Amino acid sequence: MSLNPEDYLKDKFEKLNIKINKHETLESQESVKTEELDNLVVPTQKGLGSIRTTLDDIENGVKQSQLNVEMHKVSGCHLRSATRKPIQRINPFIKITLKKTSDIVLYEQRSTTVLKDTEEGRQVEEDNERYTYLTEGQGRKRTYFLKETQTPVVLTKTRAVNTDSIAKDNVGSYVSNFEMFDTYKDLEQTTQSVDVDGQKKMQVTTYKVGGVDQFVDINKKPEFSLALMLTMRILAGNNFETPQRRFRNMTLPDPLALEVRYSYRVDLLWTFSTILQDGDSKAISDLSWCPSHGDILAVSYGTFGSISSIIPQRGCVCVWNIKNPVNPERIYNFKAPVQSVEFSPFAPQLLAIGLYDGSVHVYDISNIQQPQIAMSERLISPCSEPVSCLKWIPHSVSETKLYDIEPFLALARDGSVTRYTLINSPHLLGFPLMQLDRVDGNAEGLLFEIKPSVLEANRHPQAVHMCIDAQQKDVYFVLTDEGCVHKCSTNYPNQQLQVLQLHEAGINYMEFSPWSPKLYLTCGNDWCIRIWLMGIFKPLITLKYHMSPIYSACWSTVHSSIIVALHRDAVDIWDLKRSILQPASSTRIDQTAFYTTLKLTHCGRSVAVGNDKGSVEVLTLEEMPFPPHFQYEHLEKTIYEILANNKDLLRDVKSLGHFGYLKK
C-alpha cells in the first residue's frame, strides 16, 4: 500500500488538534477566544506545496503553551526517522570586493604651450580670447531657442539641389569599313620604347592628330605634372611607409627598456636612383638638405676626384623627396658636370648650382615652368675652373643692404673665391674676394720636414672645400690640397687672416661642433680625422684606422661625442667616449660601389651617402647611445679623459676656460 504524503499530513494534524483541545489547561481557561484556536488550524489544499505553516512552527507553539505531545505510530504507515537540521540564519552583512579597473576617459583637455611669436602662438591667443569671451565676457549672454533634435522620419531636400533629369534616347548610327579606314589613316602612329626600372622596356603606341602628339602635349601641362607627382607619392607610400616613419623619428628607442644594446648599427632605408643616359655624369659630387624642409634633398651628378678618368659631357641636379623615393620631383639638366649644390638658409626655395666649367646658376625649385633665376656671366667671373663649394652668407652689417636676397660665396678649384649677388637681372653680380697662393715655408700647426724646393706647375693651390665660422659669419675657411687652412674674411678682400697646417696631405672637409664654436674637426687624404681647438696649434684627438683617405666627417647633432665619417669603402661611426683607436662600427651597403660624399640629416638620426654609381643611400642609425642631458659637459669631460696622459696639452685646454656656447 503506497503512502500518500498529503493524507498522512492531514491525519497527523487532526490527531494533534484533538489532543490540544482535550488538554486540561485549555478546558480551565474560558476566556480563551475561539480566534486563537482558529489560528492553529492550517488550511489544507491540494498539493504538498500549498501548506504555509510547517510542523516545526506548530511544535514551537505547543512548547510555548507547555504541552507535551507524544507521537504514536500510525497503523499501516512506515515512516522513516530523520534527524532535525539546525536552522541556518541569513548573514545580515554583505561582503563587497573593490578592484581597480582601467581608466575610462570621459573628458580630457590638455594644455598646449607654443612659442608666442609664431603662427601657432597667434592661433592659440585667438582661441584663448574667444574662450574668455564666451565664458566670462559678453559672449556668455547668448539667446537660445528650443528646437527639436530628433531626426525627422521623412527625408526632404531643398529646391537648390534639384536638377533636371537627363533625357536619354536610343539613336542608331552606321559606320562603314571605308570610313574607319580613312579615319585611322589620318592618324599618325608612333611607337616608342620606354625604360622600366632601367632593365625592362615597354612599347608605348601613341597617335598624332594634325601632327601633334596629344600625350606629349598633356605631359607638358603643369597640372598634369602636379597630379602625377601626388599620385606617385601615394603609390610610393604603400612600399615605403615603415622606412618613412623611421626617417621621421616616429619609432624611437624606449629609454626605459630593460634590455638595451649599443651596437651602433647602420640600416638602409631606401636608395635614390635615377636612370642616366650614356655621357651623363654618374658620380654623386655633392648633397644638400633643404634647411626649412628636411624631406627634400638636392643631389648633384658630376665628377669626383680621380674616380672618373673621362670627363662626362653632361650633368644634372635631381631634387628628391622622401615621400617619393622612386622618382625625383625635379630634374635640371646641364651641358657640363655639376660639382656642387647648396640650398639657401634664408630663402629655402633657392638652390645655388656650381658646374665643372666654372659657371654658377641659381634655381627656384618652387617654380616649375621657369626655375632658373640667374646665372654667372663670363665678363664678370672669368673663372673656368670647377666650382668645388658654395656657401650662402648673410648681409654684412658694415655694408649697405642694396638687395633683398642674401649673397653666396663660390670657391673654384684654382683657389679663387667669388661673391655672387642676385640683382634684377638674368645674370649674377660677381665680385672677386680672394685668390690663394701657395704657402712658403712652415705654417703654424703641425711641423713637417721641409721638402726640397720643387717648381710647381701652378702657383695657386687647389681649393677643395670651404667652411663658414660658427659665430662670425663674415669669416670663412678655405681648405687646400697642401693640408693648409686659409682663414679669410669677406670684409677684407685679398687678405688672409691666418694660415694653419692641419694635415700632411690635402684636407677634404671641415666642420664645427654643434656644442662648441671653438671646437672643429678636419679630415684629409692622410687617413686621419683630427679634432682642433681654436688657440691651440696641436690636435687634441687624432682618429686613424683605415688606410684610405677620409672624404667627409661630421659631428652628430644628437650625441656630442659621436662622429660619422666616410671613406672609400665604408661609413664609420666613432664614439670618443668609447674608443679613439677604432670606430664603433663600420658599414658598407653596396659592395660594388665606392662612396663619394656624405650629409647628415637635420635630426641627426639618419644620413645620406652618395657613391660613384649614381645612387644615394639613405641610412638610419640604430642602437645608438641615448643622448646625454648636458651635451657640452659630456663632450668636455670626454676630452679631458682622453687628454689625461698628455699633461701639457690638458693644461693648455683648461687654460682656455669654457669653450662652448654661452646659451647651451
Please summarize what this structure is.
With 664 residues, the protein is an alpha+beta fold.
Verbal overview:
With 664 residues, this protein is α+β, with helices and mostly antiparallel strands. The chain has a domain at 261-443 and 463-656: Methylamine Dehydrogenase, Chain H (7 Propeller), CATH 2.130.10. Helix content is 18%, strand content 29%. A hairpin with an 8-residue loop joins β7 (315-321) and β8 (330-334). The longest helix is centred in the middle third of the chain and has 18 residues, at 222-239. It is extended.
CATH topology of the domain at 261-443 and 463-656: Methylamine Dehydrogenase, Chain H
Instruction: Give the overall shape.
Output: extended
In whole angstroms, the N-to-C terminal distance is 109 Å
For the record, what is the CATH homologous superfamily label of the domain at 261-443 and 463-656? YVTN repeat-like/Quinoprotein amine dehydrogenase
Using the coordinates above, name the CATH class of the domain at 261-443 and 463-656. Answer: Mainly Beta
Beta-strand segment tally:
32
Major sheet: order of its strands?
17-21-20-19-18
